Batch of 2 targets.
Target 1
Amino acid sequence: MSQGAEPRGVTVRVPGKINLELVVGPLREDGYHELATVFHTVGIYDYVTAIESDRWSVQVSGATAEGVPGNSTNLAIKAAKALARRYGVEGAVALGIEKNIPVAGGMAGGSADAAAALVACDALWDLQLTRDELEPIAAGLGSDVPFLLHGGTAIGSGRGERLAPVLARGELHWVLWVSNKPGLSTPQVYAECDRLRAAAGVQVADPVPSGDLVAALRTMDTDAVGAALHNDLQEAACSLYPVLDDVLEAGLELGAQGAIVSGSGPTVAFLVGTQAAAIDLSVGLAARGPDGDIRRATGPVAGAQVVQSIVPPGPGFTG
Ligand SMILES: C[C@](O)(CO)[C@H](O)COP(=O)(O)OP(=O)(O)OC[C@H]1O[C@@H](n2ccc(N)nc2=O)[C@H](O)[C@@H]1O
Ligand SMILES: Nc1ncnc2c1ncn2[C@@H]1O[C@H](COP(=O)(O)OP(=O)(O)OP(=O)(O)O)[C@@H](O)[C@H]1O
């Protein structure tokens, strides 16, 4: 740790994600499902600050902080430690997390914080790693973490950790229904999906992304994107959280051009064509229910980005 009076710290902003398409393939021997998914970041952000310290710690604040562990089980501190181990960094960091992304909501909030911690510590420790170089550590922390390093719109394959960018020009307007009750556990939702499929005698094929969504994203035609939204976990999330059927129906009746449960749920994402339509739908949903928090966001947005850095420049600095 430096001896100067100036604190050394880096703050990274990171968004949540929704899955515009989530095709769930067979259960693998390692306990994961083979996926074909289209990830899409939306502008709801957590902020992760890493400050040089003699010991590891994490503090969580913000609108959605409740229920997020302030100890070594937090995925962000696991990420910082994994990076230090891999690159032989001695010393530790104090992490501060300002949470706004829903917790256990299917928007990958914990994964986002892990990606942000990797980017913040990379800058703090001057490792100068590229996002691609951070990817293997990210994948070891969780299937969604590599995507949050990059953001934007991307196809995920394997267990979700193998990424290919998707050409998506322009922006999409989203209204999010966020449950104000405890969320859903991701492994439980996958298990429910397997159970429902077994009960219905479904033969599970290798997952393939639909060409329709990728074509619609090229022009960002809201009707076409809305029609192509698809989530194989939606039935399982609705089975575990029956109010979601009412939420989906309410948004569609109020004029949304598409509606989908986000990832493993229970957040529901509604697609509309304009900011004005997003305001109308939020007001309508808030008035009609079911009870929940209504948020608006656009996507795609960038992944984890440094927004503030208080690291004294090195000796060669002349500016
Ligand atoms: C639902 C999604 O958010 C969609 O992007 C992800 O698939 C979940 O990603 P994540 O939360 O990063 O998940 P991980 O931490 O890697 O895995 C948690 C658990 O989810 C289940 N899981 C996750 C990913 C995957 N491809 N198949 C699975 O079956 C497994 O039970 C696993 O033990
Ligand atoms: N930094 C973190 N932020 C949120 N939750 C965390 C964090 N670290 C650990 N957790 C734990 O992980 C659980 C799931 O959190 P998260 O908000 O990432 O769920 P999710 O959005 O449904 O995940 P995903 O969409 O990736 O499946 C939480 O209930 C919490 O106990």
Target 2
Amino acid sequence: MGVMPPTDERSNRSEPSSASLSTVASIRRLHPYVRTALPRLAGGLLASLGAGLMALAIPRVLQWVTDGPLTAGAREHDWSGLAWSVVLVAVLGVGEAGLILLRRTLVMFPGTRVEAAMRMALFRHLQDLPVAFHDRWPGGQLLSRIMGDLGLLRRWLVFGILQLVVSLVTIVVGVGLLVATGGWLGIIFLCGAIPVTVLAFRFSRKYRTISRLSQDQSGDLATTVEESVHGIRVLKAFGRGPDALDQFTEQAAELRETEIRKATTDAGLTTALRVIPEVTQAVALVVGAVLVARGEMTLGALVAFFATTAVINGPVVDLGMTLSMTLNARTAVDRFFEVMETVNPLTDPDRPADLAPVTPGRVSDTAGHVAFRDVTFRYDDADRPVLDHVDLELPPGTTTALVGLTGSGKSTLAMLPPRLFDVTAGRVEVDGVDVRAMTRAQVRERVAVAFEDPTLFSASVRDNVLLGVSDELPDAEREALLAESLDVAQAHFVADLPDGADTRIGEEGMSLSGGQRQRLALARAIAARPRVLVLDDPLSALDVATEEAVTARLRDVLSSTTTLVIAHRPSTVALADRVAVLQDGRVTAVGTHQELLASDPHYRYIISSLEEDYAAHADPGPSTDTATDPATDTAPEDRATQEALS
Ligand SMILES: Nc1ncnc2c1ncn2[C@@H]1O[C@H](COP(=O)(O)OP(=O)(O)OP(=O)(O)O)[C@@H](O)[C@H]1O
């Protein structure tokens, strides 16, 4: 049984938009990245060509030596001419080696630079793309593109492309020489080019599909590794490790099969490229022997012919390898541009609103008035909206608790002010300005968020907490902010960490408890001193005593901040000046807790449900509270709520 969704559902293996492009057109899209490297790559290509031509020149010298100095030397017993020809062959050999070295030197640096530039561009774009994109794309697919594909592309740039061009030029020039100087023998050799071309064409079509499949399957495998490492606690807790292993084994076997198909296809072409020239050579040898016997061809010409075919045979066999490298590189380019060409619909406006600058970490004198005006929101893949004509005002400096049944759209609504998603219709305003008229930087300077599931990075506590604080603030100010926000979030445990706030916390803060991580995430949101603070149930993992302490300190801090807090506990509702009720995608009531208790049956139902949960967590014994259906309108108001809300 699989523990994670099947790979095809996760791999984004839709028909790529580049499928209709030829390999050359697809690879030409690399131009902006390779432009600056082109002179050195061209130099490398010239060096390679020079080396190839020198290799081809050696047989000509051999022909001259055999028919000239060697024959004359044997006849006249004078070997002086031969010595010079040996020197000439040695010079050509050393020249070829020197040019190969020059090629390597020229292409190594631009290759790594192009790889690094493309990797940075892809990472930058991934950072820019909206949450909706990351919800859709599995991490492993992105990882395999940014690491594996770009590594493959570098190897092709520094070796494959040059080798391909050099092989083709050597073959064309070599065969040209054979035809020009070898007469019938050249034409026999040329005939071998027909099956080679047909096979190479068929190979390209087949190999392209397998190469794409293999690179996509590598991405799926990386996703499985990433998810099982990420979810190792759940897998272990539920004893699902063996299932994860089974799933991994199945995917790894699929990939292996594809790799074998790839290698077999490659081997098929390479074998054909070896056999066809050998066969033509055998035929040419028979014909050549007859021609020499009849005196229609010199022995030197025959030697030169076979020495030239020996030079050509290498590039012909290499053609298989360089062709498969090129097709793999083409797949890598396609996969790179599939992400790079994903348009971000959440962009900065051409003419952003003219707003006073705000320094994250410093209290600003902007009001922080938030308004949801006739807001409708629908997820891309959903058939109906989650939020349906929502109107809600958050007056400056107030704290509004958002309550609603599970799945009613609270988290979705909370993601609109920080522009993690844009509204489908209507508008969200901060201080009278539509957030879509602000740059994303302007929005983030004003709005900070803390989520229930806090993400911390592999960095020090200090760096994690001061993430949203301007680097331009003086160190003393940053330290004071750190101390204050840790204190408000009751994150006193930081002082007991081995290096205090300098302690590096593990990947995603895994070395900390859930409550500790939540408190650091809360401290991070507070430290930015935003005018608008969105808290998505940020205290859910805290014990009752710590929650009370955080709540008390938060009240002070929130007095000057406009706060929207999603409440799943009565104590969180207690933080708020007013409460908004979300029901069926609409805000159906807004008022103080007491007003809503008195007037809104759905609110009473929600509150009694929250109390039940709260009591169940605070006291695992049997609860006497019963949630009452709104239809009966008889929800009790018990002591727990009174205490929490007093
Ligand atoms: N990324 C998404 N893509 C598509 N649908 C989504 C996405 N996220 C949430 N939804 C759907 O939107 C609806 C509202 O979800 P949301 O998380 O906003 O509810 P919520 O009120 O915060 O729930 P809870 O109290 O359980 O956290 C749900 O039906 C959910 O399935």
